[in-house]
Design goal:
With 528 residues, the protein is of the alpha+beta class. The chain contains 17 helices and 20 strands. The strands form 5 sheets. Strands 12, 13, 14, 16, 17, 19 and 20 form a 7-stranded antiparallel β-sheet that branches. About 1% of the residues have low confidence.
């Protein structure tokens, strides 16, 4: 029991700190998924020991304190957060709970992408924008009216339509920065010697919390509206009707909003939006599911920090926090020495990641990556692992800076960096690592497409001196191939035939297979 109490106190301490980093400093030190795990562990322990729950526990409030640089704004109605469901079972439990509480089986839902930006509230009085604020701790936010006014998609006055302009309209929305603009902003910050933002969400938050509105105006922010606070002078019977009315008034809503009937529709929508995820110009991390009927919403009510009529259905995590155990050097087919971070294995989006390319020495120096560092890692485009940011506050002093060696780690030859290039290269064309990489490339599907000639087979061929370049492949006999480990007679015959068949590839494939620098598939097709 005492150990549970100590753990509760420790979890609260950690969550207080990370709320501060996230909400006040806009500089998080852990990924969203790691934060969610800490919060869930605390929620589980507090359910086990309800007498230990205190009003100041992170589970009892949305979190964060307003920045002192801005005037505080009290929300008329609390800006609640959403409970998260991480899988199909949890979103199914939500829909079943809604049905039980309403004693009704036929429930219509509004589903929309869950935007990964900064939540704000816009207050319109008699059609004019009077106040804009951040969520803050859910009860009190920060007055960012001057900054929000610089966002072109935020109307300063509502459009007249078939509805009477409400005397007071409090609209909740998400301010975002598009991915392309995020990349441009980070490049400019690096050029100015400033630290890069970890992700578009933090860039949007940092942009809105500028004391100088001209800085905010220089950053192309956008907004999608999705919810309501207090509304006087107009009524809505459904969430969808509310959203469409907002659109008619000149407020921007997401184009992928859809009505869904039941769990199967919700699952299908979730799968569809997750498939679109990499094609969208902005970041999303799931979908939001809301009961459509506003009367049913009122009947379901709210909890301390979240409504009972809405739930977020998250996508698998894209970012995680881990530690760099070592940095090794790989040698490519052009001799380029590439530093690779060897990390404590971590699951990102259902894939275990233990290595990430650090690209070159300039990249290491720019991010100040050291062996032993705690880092935030993501799968770029959900595919390629990359180190996003070093968490420097986690350093103990035992971390080791890294420099690429002056000699090739494979053959020991001199490694040089040509002026104007980022890469350092081994100058020995006979380096075994380069030979292997050139043959891997030569046999790849887009090149000569030699089926069965995998990395392990190539390694054996080079290590046993059976081949020293790609041309030697065509001198191999069936007997040579049968001598290789784990290659049965039939497999050896199939590989031999595949090598012979590759002689019939068109010229453009041959040109690409040769691995000439600056000659990719497109150039090879044009030349061939």
């Amino acid at each position: 029991m005492s150990s549970d109490k100590e753990r509760i106190q420790e979890l609260r301490k950690q969550l207080y700190y990370h709320n501060y980093r996230y909400y006040v400093l806009d500089d998080p030190e852990i990924s969203d998924s790691e934060y969610d795990r800490l919060m869930r562990e605390l929620e589980t322990l507090e359910k086990k020991h309800p007498d230990w729950v205190t009003p100041d526990s992170p589970t009892q409030r949305v979190g964060g304190q307003p920045l002192k640089a801005f005037d505080p704004v009290e929300h008329t109605l609390p800006m609640l957060s959403l409970d998260n469901s991480m899988n199909e079972d949890e979103i199914r439990e939500f829909t079943e709970r809604v049905q039980r509480n309403l004693a009704k089986s036929d429930i219509e839902y509004v589903c929309e992408p869950k935007l990964d930006g900064l939540a704000v509230e816009l207050v319109y009085e008699n059609g004019s924008l009077t106040t804009a604020s951040t969520r803050g701790d859910g009860t009190t936010g920060e007055n960012i009216t001057q900054n929000v006014r610089t966002i072109n998609s935020v109307p300063l006055r509502l459009l007249e339509n078939e509805h009477a302009v409400p005397s007071r309209l409090e609209v909740r929305g998400e301010v975002i920065l598009y991915l392309e603009d995020f990349e441009k902003l980070n490049k400019q910050r690096e050029k100015n010697g400033e630290s890069a933002f970890a992700n578009p969400r933090n860039a949007a938050a940092g942009s809105l919390r500028q004391l100088d509105p001209s800085v905010t105006a220089s950053r192309p922010l956008d907004i999608f509206c999705y919810g309501a606070g207090q509304v006087n002078g107009i009524e809505f019977d459904t969430q969808m009707n509310f959203l469409q009315t907002l659109k008619s008034m000149g407020l921007k809503i997401n184009p992928y909003i859809r009505l869904c009937n039941g769990i199967q529709d919700i699952k299908d929508y979730h799968a569809e939006i997750m498939k679109k995820r990499d094609d969208l110009p902005y970041e999303i991390d799931g979908i939001v599911v809301k009961v459509n009927d506003t009367a049913l919403q009122e009947q379901l009510g709210v909890k301390t920090k979240s409504p009972r009529w809405a739930m977020a259905y998250k996508f698998p995590a894209r970012q995680e926090t881990t530690q760099i155990k070592d940095i090794i050097v790989q040698v490519g087919r052009t001799g380029a020495l590439t530093p690779v971070a060897v990390m404590q294995p971590v699951n990102i989006g259902g894939v275990e990641v233990s290595r990430a390319s650090l690209h070159n020495q300039d990249e290491i120096d720019r991010k100040d990556v050291r062996i032993g560092d705690r880092v935030i890692v993501q799968r770029a485009g959900d595919v390629i692992p990359e180190v996003v940011k070093v968490i420097k506050s986690k350093r103990t002093g035992d971390e080791t800076p890294f420099k690429l060696p002056d000699t090739c780690p494979v053959c020991g030859s001199k490694a040089v960096r040509i002026e104007g290039e980022a890469a350092k290269r081994c100058i020995n064309l006979s380096c075994p690592a380069q030979v292997k990489e050139r043959i891997y490339h030569f046999a790849s599907k887009a090149a000569m497409d030699i089926d069965g000639l995998g990395d392990k087979i190539v390694d054996q061929l080079v290590d046993r001196n059976l081949v020293s370049d790609a041309a030697d492949l065509y001198d191999l006999s069936r007997k040579d191939l049968e001598s290789l480990d784990r290659l049965a007679e039939k497999s050896a015959e199939n590989l031999y035939n595949a090598i012979q068949d590759s002689k019939n590839r068109p010229l453009n494939r041959v040109l690409y297979a040769l691995g000439i620098r600056f000659v990719g598939e497109h150039v090879a097709r044009a030349a061939g």
